[in-house]
């Protein structure tokens, strides 16, 4: 049974989500303090963390930054509805996706399942054969990536995005396709999630000898993992 940790100081809402998610088959623990939630998130006992961006003792983004120093556990951020700054900061800090508050329990469960489907390793002989894309090697089944034969530390969403680009190495992939495969949902209008995740991936890959990024933006179309010149 999937164990989920909710870190949120909104007591009533957090327990409402806990009740709904447990009826939906999840095991859920709720904590209302950031520092205490951080320790639980790093315990290895949970498969996903739901983290509010506003907490009473420490910022949610600081909790997330500290989680990412030690763990790749998927993190879904609660952000203020309509606040693009909160969303971007959360994604830049390493969140896999976000849900604006208030949201419905059904939407929350759908986002959780989308992340889990794309973040947990699976036993599949096809997935255990690497995808080769220039200096990049990706094992889908093992959720493992090598860049110039060095381990590449990626969040689950970053892994999914890079895997999608690698599977179409040298070709343009639309933002809508990337959103569907990496986030499990169609691209929403004005949603910059893909752009923020791509920025993080670019930083991790570095630049080619001529200073160009390995991931090119094709204006009005999408992104392309290019071959080194």
Descriptors:
Rossmann fold; five-stranded parallel beta sheet; 229 residues; four-stranded antiparallel beta sheet; alpha/beta; Arc Repressor Mutant, subunit A; 2 domains
What does this structure look like?
This protein is α/β, with parallel strands linked by helices. The chain folds into 2 domains: 3-117, Response regulator (Rossmann fold); 131-225, Winged helix-like DNA-binding domain superfamily/Winged helix DNA-binding domain (Arc Repressor Mutant, subunit A, Orthogonal Bundle), CATH 1.10.10.10. It has helices at 11-23, 34-41, 60-68, 84-92, 105-117, 156-167, 175-183, 193-205; strands at 3-7, 27-31, 48-52, 75-80, 97-101, 131-133, 136-139, 144-147, 150-151, 172-174, 215-218, 222-225. The strands form 3 sheets. It has a 5-stranded parallel β-sheet, with helices on both faces. It starts with a strand and ends with a strand.
